[in-house]
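Students often ask why inverse folding is considered easier than folding. One informal answer: many sequences map to the same fold, so there is more than one right answer. In these notes we will look at a single instance of the problem. The structure comes first.
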C-alpha cells in the first residue's frame, strides 16, 4: 500500500448535502453504495410491477443467444456473484421453468421458450426506458469517465491487497 502523501485529500464524513466544491473529500463507498441502492431499487420496483425480478431478467438475458446453451450449474456459477445469496440463482431457474419461460433439454442445457423470449424482449424495453431515466442529464462521455474512475479504484484496491 502506498502511504498518503502531503498532497492527499483528507476524507470528510459522508454528507448528502455536500456542495460540488466539497465532493473531492467525500467517501466513494458512501456515494457508490447510495447509487447502487437507488438504481437497484428503481429497477426492482419497476420489474415488480410486472411480476418479474431482476435476477429473472439476468437469467433471461444470459440465455439469449450465445455460442452454446449453459447448464443449470454453469448459469448458477456465472450469475451467483450478482445474486443476493448462493441459492438465489437456482431458485430463479426453477421459477422461470415453472413459468414456462425456459426449458431444459435432454443434455441438461437451458433454453428460452417463445414465451421466455417474449418476456426478455419486454424486459429489455423496460430496462432501456429505466436506463434513460437514470442517465438523464449524463452524457455518454461523463458516464464512461465515471465508470473508468470506479474501475481504477477497484483495481487500486485489488493491487494493494496483492502487495
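Output (designed amino acids):
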Amino acid at each position: 500500500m502506498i502511504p498518503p502523501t502531503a498532497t492527499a485529500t483528507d476524507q470528510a464524513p459522508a454528507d448528502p448535502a455536500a456542495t460540488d466544491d466539497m465532493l473531492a473529500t467525500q467517501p466513494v463507498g458512501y456515494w457508490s453504495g447510495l447509487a447502487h441502492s437507488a438504481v437497484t431499487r428503481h429497477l426492482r420496483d419497476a420489474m415488480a410491477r410486472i411480476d418479474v425480478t431482476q435476477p429473472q431478467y439476468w437469467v433471461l438475458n444470459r440465455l439469449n443467444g450465445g455460442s452454446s446453451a449453459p447448464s443449470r450449474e454453469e448459469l448458477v456459477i456465472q450469475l451467483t456473484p450478482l445474486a443476493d445469496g448462493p441459492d438465489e440463482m437456482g431458485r430463479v431457474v426453477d421459477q422461470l421453468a415453472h413459468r414456462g419461460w425456459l426449458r431444459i433439454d435432454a443434455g441438461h442445457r437451458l433454453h428460452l421458450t417463445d414465451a421466455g423470449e417474449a418476456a426478455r424482449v419486454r424486459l429489455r424495453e423496460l430496462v432501456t426506458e429505466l436506463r434513460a431515466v437514470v442517465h438523464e442529464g449524463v452524457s455518454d462521455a461523463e458516464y464512461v469517465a465515471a465508470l473508468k474512475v470506479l474501475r481504477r479504484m477497484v483495481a487500486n484496491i485489488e493491487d494493494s491487497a496483492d502487495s
